[in-house]
Structures are given as structure tokens and as C-alpha cells.
Write a structure and sequence with these properties.
The complex is a heterodimer of chains A (350) and B (216).
Chain A (H helix, E strand, L loop, with lengths): L2 H9 L16 H6 L3 H5 L7 H15 L4 E2 L7 H5 L3 E3 L7 E4 L22 H15 L5 E6 L1 H9 L1 H10 L1 H24 L4 E6 L9 H21 L4 E5 L9 H9 L4 E4 L5 H8 L4 E6 L1 H5 L4 H16 L4 E5 L9 H12 L4
Parallel strand pairs in A: 1-4, 4-5, 5-6, 6-7, 7-8, 8-9
Antiparallel strand pairs in A: 2-3
Chain B lengths: L1 H8 L3 H13 L4 H20 L5 H23 L8 E6 L7 H12 L3 E4 L6 H11 L3 E5 L7 H13 L6 E5 L5 H7 L3 E3 L2 H16 L7
Parallel strand pairs in B: 1-2, 1-3, 3-4, 4-5
Helix pairs in contact in B: 1-2, 1-3, 1-4, 2-4, 3-4, 4-5, 5-9, 6-7
The chains are: A alpha/beta (350), B alpha/beta (216).
């Protein structure tokens, strides 16, 4: 099977020849190619699509994973477009130094998006196009976009947004509505640039950050919009919120996400994968499984291999599973640890 | 006191400040008021640990706690209490995620620690300088990113280089930080969340120095 066939099979709930691997490496390629962060993300001409695409392609060639994100991703693209400030440490990962909307009254109507400068976004889309050209059709590309509350938290500042949710719900709604427009804009742009599916990265959408009722009020309607945008382009959507979703108190939150029409759910840290498979494995593809803080980062290599082998055998047995680190992978990550994980996952399952 | 505690738990800043003022007017001892505030935050912290409440609840409760403390502090200053311990807290260099650190700061203050907040993106030397300056018992380090976690080890190394490792206990926490990581870098304590961070700080003070003594 090609990587595309492997990923497609797993996303459709089928069993591929071997467990597909998706690293969701967002800035790791910078290390692989020896690029500084500013030279790719914030050079004199803004985002450098040629170097970004090169970093993605070289990383895939080095590690051989089955799916890539089509560019070097940073969280600050939209923050800058609305007047916030992003820092680009020489060898670190870009971060939002000042959010765009310091006060609730700064948040514009979603229609303001039409007049917003595109910023570095066209550069990112160009990277996706170049990756598609260079990798061909055999390696699928994920469009990595932030979730509704996650994006709104970047624009407003997460603490301010969470306080708004409690004290000024109209302001929180305004921020999330704008964020959802942005998510949909990114989805359209990146799918048109060659992405095959949408990966909604939603670290602040879930009980690790927000109340369950806020997830239902803000996240789910936003996810419905994103799934709709993707469906118009025949693209599936995978959702990755943070939180202990396999805790029985939060099962209804997974159900609500599945009801939006997503095809995959990546469970993060502190989740029971056996339970997830048993409860939802016949309805969606389950992604994730390799815990970053307790396994992939500390190692050692033998322990990574042993745990990955066991995970691939257990979760890959019936298909409908894509092996991933528990969250995104960035520069500074020990590449030998990722190689050990991939090597173990590729071993034939007895 | 019940009204004050309820105001804090509900995250009602105005009600908390007003309840604290009313209690002072009625002649309540300021330390009884701070005890009530501490109990309210501790109860909320336990609920948070059990996921009965969530980050937004803690955030607004922290605001209410601080609003009440602003009322009580001027009175307390006339009769200062000995803190449980002195803590220097901050987010390590390269990381600007302050939410978790802020919650730990408020919970530590509510529990009776004197807390010096250095903010986000704090350089290694700045942690150690501040700890020396305020004679901190504990240096509390926060990081939300795997890419900045290693700065925690750098702080420990800097303490070694300066020969002051034995003067300060080091407490670490943040989303990607684990007990295993804390052990690996040689930190003295680890808090999985704000509640656990306070418990760990208390354990450190108790086990290392006895219940009521300072590090230096």
C-alpha cells in the first residue's frame, strides 16, 4: 500500500497493511534542514514557502511517515493580521507575544475578515502547493488549522477569552465567531492548495481548558461550520481537542463531536485508548497513542520501541487507527526518538 | 465568612470585596478573613483537581480572591504575618503561557505563601537573582511547551554553578512536565496542577525545613 492508501483505509475504519503514522510535525523540519525559525516564518519577504516546503519534504524523506502537514506552521498568522505581535526565536518555535484584541471592544465583526490583510497566509498556501508537487499524490497532506476556541484564545489571549466566557459571553461569542470565520478561510485556502483533509488542532477546545457547556456552546457549532466547509470540497475532518475525554463524564463531548460529521478523533494525553476503541472505534478513526511527556520525549529508545509495538498491535488489530504522538512535534524534539517510534510501528504485527 | 467564601467560589469580585470590607467593619480579625479566603480557594482547587470545575472557574475565583485581598492587605500590613514560605515563580524563557502560572501564584498566596511573580519568558539568571534577593525558599518554574522545558534544568544548573542549590527548593510544573521529568532534572517537587503544586510546596517546606521554618 502507498501512504495515501494506508491513511485512507484507516480514516475509513478499515485495516491497512500496517498502522499508518502521522507525526503532525509543525516545525520539526526546521531542525532537519538547519533553518532558523525567522528565515522560514518571518524573513524579509514574510513567510518563505520554498524553504518551508523543503523542510516538510526533507523530513518526510528522512523519517518516512505516512502523512505531512503542508507547511511550517505557526500560531501567529492571524494574530499578526489583526495587529497582534508574534515572536520568532532563532531556534525556537514562533509564539504570540501580544494578542490582537486587548479589549473585548477591539474584536471586529466576522465580516471584517474580508478587509483584513492576508499577511503570511498566501505564503503558507504556496508551501502546501509546493509540497504537493514535490511529494506527488502518494503522501497525503493534512491542513492543520486551529479549533474555534483555540484560535479565539490566540487572538484575544486565552485568559481573557476564558474570563469573557464567564463574565461577558457576547464578547466571547464575538471572538469565537471571528475565529471560526478564520478557520473556514484557512480550510478553503489549504484544501485548494492541495491538502487532502482538515486536521483541527484544538488544544483549548476541551475540558483541559474550558467548561463542558462552553465546549458545546462554542466549539461544536464552530466544528459544524468547519466540517461543512470541508464537505463542500469532499475533504474529511479529524478533530484533536485536549482533555480526558475517555473519562465517563466527558463521553457526551466526544459524541457531540462525532455528530458533526468528523471522521477521526485524536485523543491526547491521559486517555484510555482501549476504551476509546471499544466505545467509538466502529464509528470513527482513532488517532494518537504515543504519549509525548512520559514516553516519546524522555525515552529511552528501547522503551519507546516496546510501547509503540504494543500500541500498534493492540490498536491496529482491527484497523481504523492512525498512530501519532499525543500532540504536535516541534523543533528541538529528539529525532532519534521519532525514528525509534516509526521503526517499531513498521514492524509486522504478529 | 460564609458569604465571603461563597463570593470567591462563585468568582464574584464585587461581592468578595464587599464581604471582606463588611467583615472588617464588624471587627473580624484580618487573619480570619485570609483563612476563609484560603479555605475557599483550597476547596475550589480540590474541585478543579477532580474536574468538577474548570480553568475559567478558577480564573474568576482568583480575581475574586485578589479583590478581597486588596481590601484586607492594608490592615494586614499593620500586623504582618509570617508567611509559610517565600516563593519566586515564573514561566521559563521562551514561553509566555501564563495561565497556569497565575493560578499557581494565587493558590500559593491563598495558602499563606509570600509569592514573587516574575511573569513570563524569564531568563535563567533572573530566577536565581530574584531567589537570592528575596531569600526564596522555593523557585517555582512553569512551562507549557516541550521546547522550553529544558530551561528548567538550566535553572538547576545555574544554582549549582553559583553554589546556591542548597538554599532554594525547585518546584516544576506545566502541561508537558511530569514527575518523571522532574526526577530526571533533579527538581525537588512537581505539581500536576495548581492544587498539586500547593500540596507539593507544603510538602517541601515540611519535609525539608519543618513546618514553620524558612530555608535561609
Amino acid at each position: 500500500m502507498t501512504s495515501r492508501q494506508r491513511m485512507d483505509a484507516a480514516l475509513q475504519g478499515e485495516r491497512p497493511d500496517t498502522v499508518p503514522i502521522f507525526l503532525r510535525d509543525l516545525t520539526l523540519g526546521l531542525d532537519v534542514c538547519g533553518f532558523s525559525t525567522p528565515e522560514v516564518c518571518a524573513g524579509p519577504d514574510g513567510y518563505n514557502p520554498a524553504k518551508a516546503a523543503h523542510a516538510v519534504v526533507e523530513t518526510q524523506r528522512l523519517l518516512g511517515h505516512d502523512c505531512v502537514v503542508g507547511g511550517i506552521h505557526d500560531l501567529g498568522l492571524d494574530v499578526e493580521r489583526f495587529g497582534g505581535r508574534v515572536e520568532f526565536p532563532e531556534r525556537g518555535i514562533p509564539y504570540v507575544a501580544e494578542p490582537a484584541f486587548r479589549s473585548a471592544s477591539d474584536i471586529p465583526e466576522p465580516t471584517a475578515l474580508a478587509a483584513a490583510p492576508p499577511g503570511r497566509l498566501p505564503g503558507l498556501a504556496q508551501s502546501y502547493r509546493t509540497v504537493r508537487e514535490r511529494l506527488g499524490d502518494e503522501v497525503p497532506i493534512a491542513a492543520n488549522i486551529e479549533g474555534p476556541v483555540t484560535k479565539a484564545g490566540l487572538l484575544r489571549g486565552l485568559g481573557a477569552l476564558l474570563s469573557d466566557m464567564m463574565r461577558d459571553p457576547p464578547a466571547a461569542r464575538a471572538a469565537v465567531e471571528l475565529a471560526v470565520e478564520l478557520c473556514c478561510e484557512h480550510a478553503r485556502l489549504l484544501l485548494d492548495a492541495g491538502a487532502d483533509f482538515i486536521f483541527v488542532a484544538a488544544s483549548s477546545d476541551g475540558p483541559a481548558a474550558i467548561r463542558p457547556e462552553h465546549y458545546l456552546e462554542y466549539t461544536i457549532p464552530g466544528l459544524v461550520r468547519i466540517v461543512g466547509e470541508a464537505r463542500d470540497r469532499q475533504a474529511p475532518v479529524v478533530f484533536h481537542p485536549h482533555g480526558p475525554f475517555t473519562d465517563s463524564r466527558f463521553h457526551h463531548l466526544v459524541e457531540a463531536a462525532i455528530d458533526t460529521g468528523i471522521v477521526g478523533f485524536q485523543f491526547g494525553e491521559r486517555n484510555d485508548f482501549a476504551l476509546a476503541r471499544q466505545r467509538w472505534g466502529n464509528r470513527i478513526c482513532i488517532l494518537g497513542g504515543v504519549d509525548i511527556p512520559t514516553l516519546l520525549l524522555p525515552g529511552p529508545l528501547d522503551r519507546i520501541k516496546e510501547s509503540t509495538r504494543a500500541l500498534a498491535a493492540e490498536m491496529g488489530r482491527d484497523g481504523g487507527f492512525i498512530l501519532m504522538p499525543s500532540c504536535s512535534v516541534h523543533r528541538g524534539f529528539p529525532i532519534t526518538h521519532l525514528q525509534a517510534m516509526i521503526q517499531a510501528a513498521r514492524e509486522p504485527v504478529p | 465568612m460564609a458569604a465571603l467564601e461563597m463570593a470567591v467560589e462563585n468568582g464574584d469580585e464585587e461581592a468578595a470585596a464587599s464581604a471582606a470590607a463588611k467583615l472588617l467593619e464588624l471587627g473580624a480579625v484580618p487573619t480570619e478573613i485570609t483563612d476563609a479566603l484560603s479555605h475557599a480557594m483550597a476547596r475550589l482547587g480540590e474541585k478543579f483537581h477532580r474536574l468538577d470545575v474548570f480553568v475559567p472557574d478558577l480564573l474568576i475565583a482568583a480575581d475574586a480572591f485578589e479583590a478581597a485581598m486588596e481590601v484586607v492587605e492594608p490592615v494586614l500590613k499593620s500586623n504582618p504575618q509570617k508567611p509559610k514560605g517565600v516563593v519566586v515563580i515564573g514561566v521559563v524563557e521562551g514561553d509566555i503561557h501564563t495561565l497556569g502560572k497565575n493560578l499557581v501564584r494565587v493558590m500559593l498566596a491563598a495558602d499563606g505563601f509570600q509569592v514573587h511573580d516574575l511573569g513570563p519568558d524569564v531568563k535563567v539568571a533572573a530566577f536565581v537573582d530574584a531567589a537570592q534577593r528575596v531569600r526564596a525558599d522555593i523557585i517555582a518554574l512553569s512551562s507549557l511547551m516541550t521546547t522550553t522545558m529544558d530551561r528548567m534544568k538550566d535553572v538547576l544548573d545555574e544554582l549549582d554553578v553559583r553554589g546556591t542549590r542548597d538554599r532554594h527548593l525547585v518546584l516544576v510544573g506545566g502541561a508537558p512536565v511530569t514527575q518523571q521529568f522532574a526526577d530526571q532534572i533533579g527538581a525537588d517537587g512537581y505539581g500536576e496542577d495548581a492544587t498539586e503544586a500547593v500540596a507539593a510546596a507544603n510538602r517541601l517546606m515540611l519535609h525539608t525545613h519543618g513546618a514553620d521554618s524558612h530555608h535561609q
